[in-house]
Write a structure and sequence with these properties.
Oligomer: single chain
Helix content: 25-40%
CATH class of the largest domain: Alpha Beta
Radius of gyration: 35 Å
CATH architecture of the largest domain: 2-Layer Sandwich
Number of helices: 7
CATH superfamily of the largest domain: OmpA-like domain
Order of helices and strands: HHEHEEHEHEHEHE
């Protein structure tokens, strides 16, 4: 009996001690005042969060692949800086041919500008354009600009604002622009061929030739699918004439594909005339967009 009483008394005393501790330290927040230290198990204080810059074991910031960095007065980026950024930009421009990229080189006036171009910002922009060109970006879609920022003290850290990028959308003004903007993804996704005014000869591009070569390879094998060639026109003439012109354009493409080796029985020609415009016929640009033949394997 005495053992049981001692157990319960001990349990009560421990419970009271814990309750007093919790009330003083966590409710009243008076532990420090009476010289007690809150155990780690009960503390709600957060551990310090370290960034690359303040990690004790990592005093030097690593190279950021998403940021172009330059040493002061240097026109070439620090090695490996901005690699992921340039990869992303190159991929975007290759897949969006209607986009234009302005590369603006910048420098601080306290930097030395002894470059061949005479302007450090211009030299930096040229370096980045050359890199993107080497990565497969068409040089004609990139525009170079340059500027300067006033500073009277040479920066001690790598410069992060040596290059700025701006995108803009190019309006397709000519049939060639329209043809160039087309991208080959699959023979089961349509691609459009464009024609100069009153012509039956489509504008050839690297992308539509990729489509035709892939279609040839697929259609020369056994299978029931066919290449559908659908001709379209603007509304510049009568509906009857435009219907015939759309068929004539599609047949002209068919003849070229037969010469490439695609069997005639694997192609179907359809004429839509002016009945399915892609854009408004009220503008010159719209009429140019409507003079087309759509290709797709179905």
């Amino acid at each position: 009996m005495l053992k049981k009483s001692a157990f319960w008394w001990s349990t009560l005393i421990i419970w009271m001690a814990v309750a007093i501790y919790w009330h003083v330290c966590h409710v009243k927040q008076n532990c420090e005042a009476i010289g007690l230290e809150i155990p780690t198990l009960f503390t709600n204080k957060e551990s310090p969060i370290y960034s690359v810059e303040n990690t004790p074991a990592q005093k030097q910031a690593s190279i950021d692949p998403m940021a172009l960095s330059f040493e002061p007065s240097k026109e070439t980026p620090i090695e490996n800086s901005g690699t992921a950024l340039l990869d992303s930009i190159a991929g975007y421009l290759r897949n969006h041919p209607n986009q234009r990229l302005t590369i603006e080189g910048n420098y601080h006036t306290a930097e030395e500008t002894g470059t061949a171009s005479g302007h450090l910002g211009l030299a930096r922009a040229k370096q980045i354009k050359a890199r993107l060109t080497a990565m497969g970006v068409d040089s004609t879609v990139m525009i170079i600009a340059y500027d300067s920022s006033y500073t009277d003290v040479l920066p001690k850290e790598p410069i992060q604002d040596g290059i700025r990028f701006r995108y803009s959308t190019r309006e397709a003004l000519t049939e060639k622009d329209l043809a160039t903007d087309e991208r080959f993804t699959s023979i089961f996704n349509k691609i459009e061929l464009y024609f100069p005014y009153a012509s039956v000869n489509y504008i050839q591009t690297e992308e539509n030739q990729k489509f035709l070569q892939a279609a040839k390879q697929y259609l020369t094998q056994a299978g029931s699918k066919k290449l559908i060639l659908t001709g379209h026109t603007d509304n510049e003439d009568s509906a009857e004439w435009n219907l015939q012109l759309s068929i004539k354009r599609a047949n002209a493409v068919k003849a070229k594909l037969m010469a490439m080796g695609i069997p005639a029985e694997k192609m179907t020609v359809v004429g839509k005339g002016e009945t399915q415009p892609k854009a408004s016929n009220s503008t010159l640009q719209g009429r140019r967009a409507n003079r087309r033949v759509t290709l797709i394997v179905q």
